[in-house]
Amino acid sequence: MKCCIVYASTHHGNTKKVVDAIAKEFEVELIDATQVQKKDLSEYDLIGFASGIYAAQFHQQVKNFAHENLPQGKKIFYIMTSAMNKDFSKSMADSVKDKNAEVVGKFTCHGYNTFGPFKLVGGTSKGHPDENDLTDAVEFFRNIIRVGRAE
Ligand SMILES: Cc1cc2nc3c(=O)[nH]c(=O)nc-3n(C[C@H](O)[C@H](O)[C@H](O)COP(=O)(O)O)c2cc1C
Fold first, then answer.
1. Which pLDDT band holds residue 150 (cuts at 50, 70, 90)?
2. Whose CA is nearest to atom 21 of ligand 1?
3. Is any atom of ligand 1 closer than 6 Å to the C-beta of 32?
4. Distance between CA atoms of 131 and 135, rounded to whole angstroms?
5. Ligand 1 in contact with 108 (CB < 6 A)?
6. Cβ contacts of 125 within 8 Å, gap of 6 or more
7. What is the pLDDT of residues 96-141, one digit of tens each?
8. In the CATH hierarchy, which top-level class contains the domain 3-150?
9. Residue 24 φ then ψ, to 5°
10. Residue 15 CB–ligand 1 contact under 6 Å
């Protein structure tokens, strides 16, 4: 199963830590959407979109990348780090609509946040993603590919 993760991690590199942890354990190509705007993804069986969350949204360049490059009928998954550790993946909906993508999993964890006034109090979710978050992310990915292989 050939897999890539398209990511943007511009605040503290929190999301990058998560995708790096996965890429350390598995053969996964990482694509930085802030550097790469166009790529043929047809050879990938599984495509992840990973981002810090900014104003309740995936990074604009991850959204653009998906809109421009996601082929029809792919298995996709989402990874997000945020202050609130919530599922913000609906912010990707417009970018993947009409692509017949199957969402096979979502992973969220806290990410250190010093945006705006939070900086004054030393930030929130300090230390995250931590070792436990990274272990959970690796397990999340292991499960996805297990399911993918079984089909
Ligand atoms: C401009 C900005 C806006 C943010 N908006 C949100 C938000 O709406 N909800 C939230 O839970 N976290 C928000 N955060 C916190 C980030 O999602 C969090 O720190 C994330 O882990 C950053 O990931 P990164 O280091 O990979 O960029 C915001 C951070 C910044 C800098």
1. low
2. 111
3. no
4. 6
5. no
6. 83, 85, 110, 111, 112, 113
7. 999 999 999 999 999 999 987 777 777 888 899 999 999 999 999 9
8. alpha beta
9. -70, -30
10. yes
